[in-house]
Amino acid sequence: MNPKTNCRYFRGDIPCKFHKSEGVFCGNCDHYDKITHRILIIKLGAIGDVIRTTPLLHKFKNEYPHSEIYWLTYSPEVVPDLVDHILKFEIKNILYLQALHFDFLINLDKDREACALAEQIKADLKVGFKLENGRCVPIDDRARHKWLTGISDDLNRVNTKSYLEEIFEICGYKFTGEKYILNLTENYQWDIKEPRPLVGLNTGCGSRWTTRLWKIENWIDLAKKLKSEGYGVILLGGEEEDERNRHISKVANVLYLGYFPLNQFLSLVNQCDLVVTAVSMALHIATGLGKKVVLFNNIFNRNEFELYGLGQIIEPDVECKGCFRGKCDTDCMSLINPDEVLAACKSLLSIK
């Protein structure tokens, strides 16, 4: 037997899956898939950013159908199984990557550790970001636009490109509507008896930018109004939102099932027909699952978000939109009226 070490299915330390399932060897195997390119994606986090980077895989698989793709991340659970090697950011995987040589390395993170790895790992072509004098800089001109909008709030406010347009541009492509790729790995059974359509209210936004929070009173008002219109309502969130959601559930008499591990949360969001949320992980999960979305935005550039024609962005009527502030004395989110959100929900849910 002459093992074909350049096959995508060759493992090196254990039998490949086809040897185990069919008993074939390299000399008589019809599954031989010669690797033509090795591609490394460095996109560490956060979870939502990892999810919204997955459309790039459409381009890579189309242009390099026999490529072997590696992805280094803090959140391996949301990387699609289309990727051959999903690697969590830890020392054993970093050592492994440093021993390899890639045809194409894409670093889309500006963190020092990501940029340092982009410098150290061997590749014929590198795009995205690297270190220079200990600081993040663009590898080439294609990444310069995203780099500049990251270091200048003024440039970010006037940016007209979405995140997807920017990262496709960095990789030398044009974004043409490629969808998120989000695999549901667990098929949880939910006993939800609420009316349909079912509207998920994701009431949190994380602790970094608390300026995105909508008041509990507004969530209660919206939940009651949705119920009165005959819609089912379910509250969504993590551990940080648990106390808030329990209160809203009690006062508005709407369903709250608790908070769950990520894969189970994905399955719960998948039960919804529409999700109301601030900019958060839930936004990208809902988008990846093809759900309709009402998105609250106040501190980011609205052009950043790609909702694929399934969503509506609601913003407060203030001149300082896109301020990128994590904290602010002005509660501009209170200017968003529950009736306005209800109207957006009704409009989106009326579209088949």
Question: Overview of this structure, please?
Answer:
By secondary structure, this protein is α/β, with parallel strands linked by helices. It folds into two domains: 35-170, 3-Layer(aba) Sandwich (Rossmann fold), CATH 3.40.50; 198-349, Glycogen Phosphorylase B (Rossmann fold, 3-Layer(aba) Sandwich), CATH 3.40.50.2000. Helices cover 31% and strands 18% of the residues. It has helices spanning 17-22, 47-51, 56-63, 91-98, 112-120, 144-151, 153-157, 163-170, 216-228, 242-252, 262-269, 281-288, 338-349, and strands spanning 37-42, 67-73, 85-88, 101-107, 122-132, 135-138, 198-202, 232-236, 255-256, 274-278, 292-296, 311-314. The strands form two sheets. It has a six-stranded mixed sheet. The protein has a six-stranded parallel sheet with strand order 9-8-7-10-11-12, with helices on both faces. Helix 9 (216-228) crosses helix 10 and helix 9 (216-228) packs across helix 13. The longest helix is centred in the middle third of the chain and has 13 residues, at 216-228. It is globular, with a radius of gyration of 22 Å. The protein starts with 16 loop residues before the first helix and ends with a helix. The model has no long low-confidence stretch (mean pLDDT 95).
Instruction: Estimate percent helicity.
Output: 25-40%
- CATH class label of the largest domain: Alpha Beta
Distance between the termini: 57 Å
Mean pLDDT: 95
Reported for the largest beta sheet, the result is: 6 strands, mixed
**Class from helix and strand fractions:** alpha/beta
Relative strand content:
15-25%
As a whole number of angstroms, the C-alpha radius of gyration is: 22 Å
CATH topological fold name of the largest domain: Rossmann fold
| Order of helical and strand elements | HEHHEEHEHEEHHHEHEHEHEHEEH
Q: Uncertain regions: pLDDT < 50 for 5+ in a row? A: none
Principal-axis shape equals globular
The CATH superfamily of the largest domain turns out to be: Glycogen Phosphorylase B
The number of distinct β-strands equals: 12
What is the name of the CATH architecture of the largest domain?
A: 3-Layer(aba) Sandwich
Summed up, the domain count is 2
**Order of strands in the sheet with most strands:** 3-2-1-4-5-6
Number of helices: 13
